[in-house]
Design a protein that fits this description.
With about 325 residues, the protein is mostly helical. The protein folds into two domains: about 1-115, no CATH class; about 120-225 and about 240-325, no CATH class. Helix content is about 55%, strand content about 10%. It is built from 14 helices and nine strands. It has helices at about 5-15, 25-30, 50-55, 65-80, 85-90, 120-140, 145-160, 165-180, 180-190, 200-225, 245-250, 280-290, 295-300, 305-325, and strands spanning about 1-5, 35, 40, 45, 55, 60-65, 235-240, 250-260, 265-270. The strands form four sheets. It has a three-stranded parallel β-sheet with strand order 4-1-7. Strands 2-3 form a two-stranded antiparallel sheet. Helix 1 crosses helix 3 (about 50-55). The longest helix has 25 residues, at about 200-225. The protein is elongated, with a radius of gyration of 21 Å.
Amino acid sequence: MLILDTNVAIDIERFYFGEVRPSADLRELLLAFPNRGRFEHTVDINYGWAVAEATWSRPKRTVDVLRYRRMTHALGTVLDWSPDEVRRAFEARVPPADRDRAWPRKVPLPRIADIPSPEAAISVNYGVLLKTLHVASSYKGLRGKAAERALGEVVDWTRDTLGVFDTYGVQVAVDLLCGDAQRKGAAQRLLKHSGPATAARLRERASNAAWDLLFTRLCDGYTFGLLPMERSATANVVTRNVDLPYLRSIVETLAVFDLGRRSEKAPMSKMTASLASHVDPAAVRGIIEGGLDSVASLARFRRDPEEIARQADAAIADLERALDAAC
């Protein structure tokens, strides 16, 4: 399975409507994984999450229906092309949309009620990253014991208040707060963190980075069969985003546990560490192991999903209010 990252999906959309010049890289991608016959692709290509990121607004809790229609039509059309259709489209002097008899009159607007909200999928990632940015912005200096205390705040809040231990999110916190120069730099680029910022800007940065974590988690989810109602399949993300290789390198899935209900499964992951010289490795390890206790982790996974969601939503709302008051 291929999962299109948002930047690649937007490249396809803009090519379809003639807003960018045809790209050799995009042509190569479409020819490498074409539609061999009607609805029989060489691989499954998932672009739904990319469309969700591009069209959904977290502050407004709504979707841009016009953009949603435009993107889904462009992607659905282009990814359904045969190799010959791909070649003709890239050789043509006019954009594909100008030759599309269906667009726009025969492409109906979807109802907002029919478009699933992605909020539940990214809320935990968003919460951990927002807490990390909040803590990082609250300390004047993050060295030695101060860095360890900051990390402890993030881990304790994630485990006890948010109620879900997000391995990827916590690993980013480790890298930002206690990592060596390379890891800290990678986490700063992911979070666009360079110092104090307004509450709105911190929320925006956390939301954008949360989508990167989601695309990384989706690879694990499909590959290890962790997604309810989805069959397992080896998955990779097609992206131009330099942050995703960093995220793929920092966490390794070691095992998958069957939760014994509705075929749900939970991963057991291994975090990596490349720490700054000014922090105590034993102290950092103790902080992380306190959050990763396997028995407690399984107990959290076995909680009612709706109860977990309510707790996480309340924790994030409280954190956002605290940010608004502080900034």
